[in-house]
Amino acid sequence: MCSLCGVLGGNEHWTDAVARPGVYTRNVERIDRRRERARRVAAANRILSAFGMSLSDWQGSSFVIATRTGKSEIIEDLGHLWPAAERLSGRPCDPLDPALIARMEAADG
Amino acid sequence: MADVPAFTPVYLLTGFLGSGKTTLLRRLLADPALADTAVLINEFGEIGLDHHLVERIDENMVLLQSGCVCCTVRGELADALRDLHSKRERGLVPAFSRVVVESTGLADPFPVLSTLKSDPVLRHHFRPGSVVTTVDAVNGLAQLDTYIESNRQAAIADRLVITKADLADGPSMDALKERLARINPDAGCFVAAADGPGADVLLGDGEAGRAASLQSASGFYCDAPSMLVTAEGAAHQAAISSFVVSVDEPLDWTGFGVWLTMLLNRHGDRVLRVKGILDLAGEERPVAIHGVQHLVHPPVHMQAWPSADRTSRIVFIVDGLDVGLLKRSLHAFTRSRSAGVSATPPAAARSAPNSR
Fold it and tell me: Which superkingdom is the protein from (chain A) (predicted)?
C-alpha cells in the first residue's frame, strides 16, 4: 500500500502483462521500468490532448491525469485511465467518434 | 491440500432457459472426472441429487459420491464462492481444484466473470475458466432470433454444446451449427449425447486450451472472416456481428492497450468478444489476447508463428457497433504509435528475454 495516497496495490491490469523490459519487473531494471511508464504516458497523451487533458507519471507508481484548468486525479493503471478522463472532462471519450478518428489520422501524417 | 492450484479456475455453465443445462450438469455430476470439483447450482431440487448424496455439509452444501461438492447459491455468487474458499481452507470440504457455476437461463453471463476479477478476496484465489454454453437443437435458432441474451451466451462461449440433437432433423442441425459458427467462429462445438462429451472435454483447462485453440491446423482459428447477420435475413435479430481486423505491421503493445481500454471503457458491454494473435513490436513470439466484454484475460505468449505470415489478426464479436469505424479507429490509434516505437533504440528490446 502506498502510504501517501492509500492506494492498495496488487490490482494487475491486463496491459501490465507482456514480456517487455520494464513491464513484468517491479524491483529490478529501474530504468526499463521508467522507460516503459514514459512510453505509456506518451501513448495516452497522444489521445488525451484531443480532450485538453494530459497524463504524467507520479513517483513511478501511479499516474496523474489533469485538465488544462488543473483539475487532476491520481490513477493506478491504464484500467482507470478512461473512466477518470471522462469524469474530469465531463464528456465521453469514444474511440469510435469519427471526429476523433479523423484527428488521429491527421496527426499521423 | 497440496493439489489446490494457486488460482482455482471457475467454469461457467450457461445456456438459455430450457436449453439443457441441468441435464448436462446432472450427467457431469455422476462423472468420476468431476471428483475434485465444486459445483454451484441454483436449486438442489432441479437436479435430483438424492441418490448421489453422501453427506450433507450444511443446508446449502452437500458432498456427492463422486467426491464432488455441490452447493446452492443463495444471494450473491461472490458470497457463495468466499464461503467455499473458506471451508476449503479450514478442511471442512474436500480440496477441490475447480469450480463450476451454473447460471440462470436469462442471465447475462458476463457479471460472473467480472465478479472474479473485481472481488478483493476472490481475485487472489480464483480465475475465470472457460465458458460452456448449451444450445437447444430444437428451439435454439428461434431463441437466437428472438433473444439478445441467447446471442450473448453463444458469443462468449469457449465451448458450445448442442443439446436435444436427437429431436432435431439434419437440415435444422446444420442451420444451427452454421449460425453458431457465425456468432462465435472459434468456440469448440459439441453435440450432447448420453455418453458425451465428458467433463474432461468440457472443463479442460482454460488457459492452456485457449492458447492451443487459437492455433488451428491451418494456423489460425478463424480462417473465413465472415460478415454476418444481414445475410441471414432475420430482421429483428440484434446486430451481432463478428469480423476480423488484420494489421500488417507490428503493433505497439502500449498503444494497442490504450486503444483497447478506451474502447472497452466506452463500449465494453457491446464488445462481446475480442480474440486475436498480435505481432508486437520487439517480440519474436506471437501474443494471444482474449477478452469478454469489459474483462480482458492476461495475454498469453504462444510458442511460435504457425507460418511466415506475421499479420496480427483480431476477431471482434460486437453488438451494434459500426464495423468500419472500429477498423478505422484501430488503425488510426495504433499505426503512428508503432512507427514511433520502432524509432526507439531496439537494443533495449532485444536484451529483454535474458535479463528478466
Answer: Bacteria
